From TrEMBL:
Species per Swiss-Prot/TrEMBL record: Scytalopus superciliaris
Pfam family membership, one: AMP-binding
Stated name of the protein: Long-chain-fatty-acid--CoA ligase
Positions of the AMP-dependent synthetase/ligase domain: 25-212
GO MF: long-chain fatty acid transmembrane transporter activity; long-chain fatty acid-CoA ligase activity
Reactions it catalyzes: tetracosanoate + ATP + CoA = tetracosanoyl-CoA + AMP + diphosphate; a very long-chain fatty acid + ATP + CoA = a very long-chain fatty acyl-CoA + AMP + diphosphate
One GO-annotated biological process of the protein: long-chain fatty acid import into cell
Family of this protein: Belongs to the ATP-dependent AMP-binding enzyme family.
Taxonomic path: Eukaryota, Metazoa, Chordata, Craniata, Vertebrata
Keywords, in A-Z order: Ligase, Lipid metabolism
InterPro entries documented for this protein: AMP-binding_CS (IPR020845), AMP-dep_synth/lig_dom (IPR000873), ANL_N_sf (IPR042099)
Gene Ontology CC terms, in alphabetical order: endoplasmic reticulum membrane; plasma membrane
């Protein structure tokens, strides 16, 4: 979707910067396609001698933070941080049988590391929404038999601000994982949408510590 915005700068990119697109073919000479290579890839594990990483502290991602601790910056994400993030859903009690609904943007560590990474770690099913919709949220949960939802605090407030509908507790969601819910919204959310266990975590992409609230 965003490839058009890169068209102007593609010729000026450094040679060691690769651009990949989620298609089987591309009209841009310097853009690599991914779907055709996934289709052709073997199901066997990658041989050790072809692994690009031999150190858990080596960088795997750069995630640009919004500047909570200062100016926006690229936070270096190591393989160890990815693995720890991916264990978050498991730590809160999610299992391979869960169906996890993710509506948050994947350029944030919450959705990418904890959400997508957590689904891969568990072998769980991921329902990935292209854009958050407060009006479609619970109907999506019912449609896809969602059992775990991921949120940021404002998302829960948006849901509580929706007009009350009949049967709002008619869903299978048992666990909500995220951060930043105010205590009044927390209570209203549970009163309105049923016995969902809310598990919060607090951390920063560029930080080196994380708090997890298991007790509610």
């Amino acid at each position: 979707d965003l490839l058009g915005t890169l068209e102007e700068i593609l010729p000026n990119l450094q040679r060691d910067v690769s651009v990949w697109v989620m298609t089987k073919d591309s009209t841009f000479p310097r853009v690599h396609t991914l779907l055709d290579k996934i289709d052709a890839a073997s199901e066997d594990p990658v041989p050790v001698n072809q692994s690009s990483t031999n150190n858990l502290k080596s960088a795997v991602l750069y995630i640009f933070t919004s500047g909570t601790t200062g100016l926006p910056k690229a936070a270096v994400i190591s393989h160890m941080q990815v693995l720890k993030g991916a264990a978050g859903l498991w730590a809160f009690g999610a299992t391979a049988e869960d169906i996890i609904y993710i509506t948050l943007p994947l350029y944030h560590s919450a959705a990418s590391l904890l959400g997508i990474g957590g689904c891969i770690e568990l072998g769980a099913t991921c329902v990935l929404k292209k854009k958050f919709s407060a009006s479609q949220f619970w109907s999506d949960c019912r449609k896809y038999n969602v059992t775990v939802i991921q949120y940021i605090g404002e998302l829960c407030r948006y849901l509580c601000n929706q007009p009350v509908k009949e049967g709002e507790k008619n869903h299978k969601v048992r666990l909500a994982v995220g951060n930043g819910v105010r205590n009044d919204i927390w209570r209203e959310f549970l009163d309105r949408f049923g016995a969902v266990k809310i598990c919060e975590f607090y951390g920063a992409t560029e930080g080196n510590i994380c708090f997890m609230n298991h007790t509610g």
